[in-house]
Design goal:
With about 120 residues, the protein is mostly beta strands. It is built from no helices and 11 strands. Strands 2, 4, 5, 6, 9, 10 and 11 form a 7-stranded mixed sheet that branches. A 4-stranded antiparallel sheet has the order 1-3-8-7, with no helix packed on it. It is globular.
Length: about 120
């Protein structure tokens, strides 16, 4: 089955930046939707950003203006550039793949992002 592997998480001070990357083990197509979600301790997993094959993006309000999602279909990757990080961005970030017509999304194992004040 297809696997997603995230990388790029770490510890950063408030105001700093991180770039997360996710590699998909199989080819991704223009009709696949890729996204990033996050889950803080004791909280529900929430959407951060998604991107379609046509480049249409969707961001959580908290991410707008600070985060940028991008994808490279040739390299089977999706990235999340995070700038102006805040302590409230601290969470495990998960890569997500939704394939059109399939009931279940594919999730990565997650990468920890910790933002200190």
């Amino acid at each position: 089955q297809v696997q997603l592997v995230e990388s790029g998480g770490g510890l950063v001070q408030a105001g700093g930046s991180l770039r997360l990357s996710c590699v998909v083990s199989a080819s991704i197509f223009r009709f696949d939707v890729l996204g990033w979600y996050r889950q803080a301790p004791g909280k529900q997993r929430e959407l951060v950003a998604t991107i379609t094959g046509g480049g249409i993006t969707n961001y959580a309000e908290s991410a707008k203006g600070r985060f940028t999602i991008s994808r490279d279909n040739a390299k089977n990757t999706v990235a999340l550039q995070m700038n102006s990080l805040k302590p409230e961005d601290t969470a495990v970030y998960y890569c997500n793949l939704h394939k059109l017509g399939r009931a279940n999304d594919v999730w990565g194992q997650g990468t920890q992002v910790t933002v200190s004040s």
